């Protein structure tokens, strides 16, 4: 037995709540189907790419009835992409549903992410293994990876592995890119009459895999609570010592949901939102001026300290940066196989890149500190995304604010002291022990994934709705993956992908920041959320995010 803290031991015994009718048991629910669906845009192209799974109806489970298949089934499960709290509970929910339906059913876990199914690396998940991971953070039960599943060769190999194990269904637990791959696999399996279905589960701490049917991706709740705890602690420190400006970058590769939620939970002095920067077409210099002005105004009332939150993906929202990064993406895709480029020194690479950019982009690129240039040129991830977690935007902003303040000082517009601390919160939150919300939600998502399999569906994302209500009122069902798709440019080519949900600037969540940020900039209205609580009054333990409450209820419960 592994050594464990008292909390770890207690959490293993927590019994997650099951969503609505799922609590009746896997053998006591029935499938209902709605109208046919389409895709968010590029309907013709998406239909042509996914002729076998396009347009399926939305699925919903209702109480009673016994119309789900009772055949023995083997299922394979994959954890894909970045870790998110609750992944182990998705697997536990899937396992419990599968074993309740038929004790002979087997669950295989593919190791190390999607590559596991291609390379035939797996373990059979047993009671003993599952019981030691219930309600725990992390993806270490089987590991995760970012291998892209998209080639005929990979699908063919996966089929051989599945046939050897008599696997009838594959569950892919992942974000937008991984579920795009789940849809490609579902299409291929159906087209080739393999009889193997593919179901996805919505994961990502970034919170950008959401739409009318998917209210929240799992992990967002726990990760944002963890970051909010840390930000609150830093706010206390800043307010005690009164000597540092803390610039805190928060994970969230594209959308700024994590930063916005953390801001609403903690009320810092400055919060940047990438989507707003893009809409207002703010330049890097304007962003720097905005921050420097708040620093100067606070200094004028004797406050040489403060907290600024910066979304990880900010850099890609700044218009001039976005255009330059898009050019860099295309250029790097061409240069990755060019050995003469690969053999250049770092400085020669910068010059070679600049010589291929247009003059405005080249000037911007050359104006950046070498460290940032190097970070912008790092390999893209297998899905073509810039690795924004490695770009030190918080340090870039600190340096530029410092220069701006020196200039303001010379002009007599600033008379303070700017001492900085840079932080990046990302990995700290991705494997935290799931909150009660994520424990319940994830368990339900996994249980529901098996219900979708039993209902004979493929190319669906497991969906649990009505999540701001008690779990007994949650609604279980499935959303066709093609319904969430559009075409986007990746690696220099148009590709079908699940559309990311960005922060809505006319929505209630952003308004809650917008209506308060002037006040929060000058008066210190800091909130100190403290650590996630797992045991105690429901008002402390079971609340979900402010984002979800505002989106669903338009008002906050217990906040
Ligand atoms: P997913 O979209 O796979 O959930 O991952 C998101 C994320 O956590 C981002 O917030 C972050 O930029 C990225 O993963 C970091 O990736 P890596 O784990 O490969 O460093």
In brief:
The protein has helices at 6-12, 43-49, 87-101, 115-119, 127-131, 152-164, 176-191, 220-241, 257-266, 274-279, 284-300, 314-317, 319-335, 339-342, 346-356, 359-367, 370-376, 393-410, 427-430, 436-454, 508-514, 517-522, 538-541, 546-553; strands at residues 29-33, 59-63, 74-79, 106-110, 122-124, 169-174, 197-202, 245-250, 270-271, 306-311, 420-425, 460-465, 475-480, 485-490, 493-498.
Explain the overall architecture.
With 559 residues, the chain is α/β, with parallel strands linked by helices. The protein is built from 24 helices and 15 strands. It has a 9-stranded mixed sheet with strand order 1-2-13-12-7-6-3-4-5, with helices on both faces. The chain binds 1,6-di-O-phosphono-beta-D-fructofuranose (FBP). Residues 81-82, 84, 175, 203-206, 251-253, 312, 388-389, 430 line the site of 1,6-di-O-phosphono-beta-D-fructofuranose (FBP). 1,6-di-O-phosphono-beta-D-fructofuranose is lined by residues 81-82, 84, 175, 203-206, 251-253, 312, 388-389, 430.
Could you list some keywords that capture this structure?
single chain; 559 residues; alpha/beta; 9-stranded mixed beta sheet; 43% helix; binds 1,6-di-O-phosphono-beta-D-fructofuranose
